[in-house]
Amino acid sequence: MRQSEKGLLLIVSGPAGVGKGTVNAELIKRHPEIRMSVSATTRKPRPGEIDGIHYFFKTQAEFEQMISENAFLEYMHVFGMNYYGTPKQFVVNELNQGHHVILEIDVQGARKVKEVFPEAIRIFIAPPSMAALKERLVKRGTETPEAIETRTKTAFAEMRAMPECDYLVINDDLNEAIAQMEAIVAAEMCSVAHNETVINTFLGGIEEC
Ligand code: 5GP
What we know:
Layout: E1 9-13, H1 20-30, E2 34-36, E3 40-41, E4 56-57, H2 60-68, E5 72-78, E6 82-87, H3 88-96, E7 100-104, H4 107-116, E8 121-126, H5 130-139, H6 145-159, E9 167-170, H7 174-189, H8 196-208
Parallel strand pairs: 1-7, 1-8, 2-7, 3-4, 8-9
Antiparallel strand pairs: 3-6, 5-6
Helix pairs in contact: 1-7
The structure holds guanosine-5'-monophosphate.
């Protein structure tokens, strides 16, 4: 893939159960220049989740301390009970090193990041259909029926945000979804907006001729 001085900030949204995590994990495996931001949260780890890999698991006091230190790019209460936030330092460092950074965050978080980083690219990962989404939400099976209902409501609210994103990836087939993500990164790397330095070098060259 084409290199540049600064990486792309990719905000990946989409309803729970759509396979965002799988698409992102596979993309990162294939492209070491793409990094995944690890969010902080006060929710309890699910079976198999590892601190520092899936999330930084924090107590409420620890999370609030980070808020007071202005350590988040964005944070919020999701589902009205847990804090979730994107630690700022990692994102800024990686972008400055020319790595692309993926934020896997909800739609409200995506809107906040876009305010601070207007050049961020919003990608929506959608299921093949609404029926497929409903099936995946129920099949996930790690939570109570109440939690599934809350998750379903949130998933539908997330789907309504599709039109405000820059790109739409349909996750029907994993390899196809990854190919679409790769195409987005390749196109954005060639965008005029992302190549200001290169363009100015060319224009400077004209002056010198
Ligand atoms: P879960 O508890 O299932 O891991 O995540 C619940 C929701 O929180 C998902 O929609 C997920 O995208 C969102 N989320 C995870 N990390 C962050 C974050 O750092 N900021 C925001 N705003 N949402 C997040």
